[in-house]
Each structure stands twice: as structure tokens, then as C-alpha cells.
Predict the 3D structure of the following.
Amino acid sequence: MKILRYTVLIVTILYWMLILMMTHLPRPPRIGPSMNDKQAHLIGYSILASLMYLSLWATRPRLRWTWLYAAAIVLAYGALDEWTQPLTGRTCDIYDWLADLVGVAVAISVLAGLRYCLIACRLEKR
């Protein structure tokens, strides 16, 4: 179980570093299928929120408000990310952050629901 914790944490850190780098390049290279900017934000931040949630769950399994901490961390990062993009010649767009918000909400809702079901099933079997 310890290796799983470290693996999730390392993948989260590496992914976070990747999106930090990609969002601050003046013209980032296209990766994956063609999509518009808002879709990229939604998908990118849903992945980051999922990884953050899983990292918190794996390293702090008894943390009561895991979903809230994960959402707050990722959304604060998203706001800071948008706010600092003009320093590299990119634009700050509130709609990008709103797309981040939707991605975070979807990912965390799914994972928190899954966690709830796993806990409920475990308690039911007792």
C-alpha cells in the first residue's frame, strides 16, 4: 500500500509540473487530439483534481473533507495560473478558470461518490 501512496503522489507532482510548464509557454505544442481551449482546461484540470484527490485519499485516508481540500488546492492553483500567464505573453481569461472549475467539480464529484460507495459497502458487509 505504501508504494501505491508514493506512486500516486509522484504522478500528481509530475503532472502538476507538466501543466505548469505547458500553461506558461507562449505557444505550447499540441498534445493529443485537437480540441478547443476550454475543453483542454476542463480535461486538464479534471485530471489534476483527480490526482490531487487520490493523493490526499492515499496519504491521509482519514481526512474528513478530502474533496474540499482537493478542490480548493486545484482551483486556487488554477486562478494563480491564469493570473500569471500574462507574464509570459498569454492571456488571463476568467472563462478558462470557469472551465477549470467544471472539470474539478466533475472529477471530484465522481471520486467522492466512489469513495462514499466503497465506504458504505464496507460498512454494510460488517
